[in-house]
Amino acid sequence: MIYDLAIIGGGPAGVAAGIYAARKQLKTLFITKDWNSQSTVSEGIENWIGTVRIPGAEFAKSLEGHLRAYADDIVDIKVGESCEKIEKADGGFKISTNKELYTAKAVLITTGSFRKKLDVPGADKFEHKGLTYCASCDGPLFSGQDVVVVGGGNAAFESASQLLAYCKSVTLINRTDKFRADPVTVETVSKNPHFKIVTNAVSKEVRGDKFVNTFVYTDSTTGRDVELKVSGIFVEIGSIPTTYFVKDLIKMDEWQHIIVDPRNQMTSVPGIWAAGDCTDGLYHQNNIAAGDAVKALEDIYLFLKAK
């Protein structure tokens, strides 16, 4: 059969679009490997509008439950499938997964991105036990404590700025003496008396007991190892968008984010839209991803009804 719409990705953006598609009675194919977005690992999400605080795992279950409540026979949910390639076809697009080949008149890509991991001893062991990749999700959990932010881009400084509202001190660790962040951002955050920058610092090890208690870096100018006693480590060394399956089809930026029209989330290929962290949107958050997906769905509905 030919679906009206194929939604690829099961995070907040995909689920929001799926719910709207169901309500608009669009015969929809919903493909997701699982329901685990980046926020699923958070112990408590406190910025999802309408919910004061919700654990990440519960957040994922609530998204799934909401979609299934509306899916009925309108949204065909395929869990455990990964999109491998999207190609143009007569009347729409062919979507190849690791299990099947589907056809749809329109496609919405909401596959998000995944964080670059801190590749040092102890990082894996203490992930979600003091080492995290989301300041906006987990920052309040470290209220009154000393923490480290690893990275030198805008995201690192913005995370530090958020953390300074809660933490006793924030130390930013950058492997060189140059920052990728905007000079204005660096200057603004640096004015806070509880903020410290350490440059030429190469991450070496994460230590702890049940939770993180020490971050070790090597001073590349002296070769000396330095230990910092901290309760939290926030890693902001970049992310990789999950867009490999359309790399030969859609225009992307230099980081492989899908370029979209911010008015309607349409890509360079008519009939394909994208929303959330996989796009070149300036800001990436759960609420923004869901909103952009709804925006895209409204445009998709008009597109399909005009056919």
Annotation keywords:
307 residues, alpha/beta, FAD/NAD(P)-binding domain, 2 domains, 7-stranded mixed sheet, 5-stranded parallel sheet, 6 helices, elongated
Q: Topology, please?
A:
Elements: E1 2-8, H1 12-23, E2 28-32, H2 56-71, E3 75-79, E4 83-89, E5 92-97, E6 101-109, E7 113-115, E8 131-132, H3 135-138, E9 146-150, H4 154-163, E10 169-173, H5 183-190, E11 195-198, E12 201-208, E13 212-219, E14 225-229, E15 232-235, E16 239-241, E17 272-274, H6 286-305
Parallel strand pairs: 1-2, 1-6, 2-3, 6-17, 8-15, 9-10, 9-15, 10-11
Antiparallel strand pairs: 4-5, 5-6, 7-16, 12-13, 13-14
Helix pairs in contact: 1-2, 1-6
Detailed description of the structure:
Helix 1 packs parallel to helix 2 (56-71) and helix 1 (12-23) packs parallel to helix 6. 23% of the residues lie in helices and 29% in strands. The radius of gyration is 21 Å and the shape is elongated. With 307 residues, it is α/β, with parallel strands linked by helices. The chain folds into 2 domains: 2-114 and 239-305, FAD/NAD(P)-binding domain (3-Layer(bba) Sandwich); 117-235, FAD/NAD(P)-binding domain, CATH 3.50.50.60. It starts with a strand and ends with a helix. The protein has helices spanning 12-23, 56-71, 135-138, 154-163, 183-190, 286-305; strands at 2-8, 28-32, 75-79, 83-89, 92-97, 101-109, 113-115, 131-132, 146-150, 169-173, 195-198, 201-208, 212-219, 225-229, 232-235, 239-241, 272-274. The strands form 4 sheets. Strands 1, 2, 3, 4, 5, 6 and 17 form a 7-stranded mixed beta sheet that branches. The protein has a 5-stranded parallel beta sheet with strand order 8-15-9-10-11, with helices on one face.
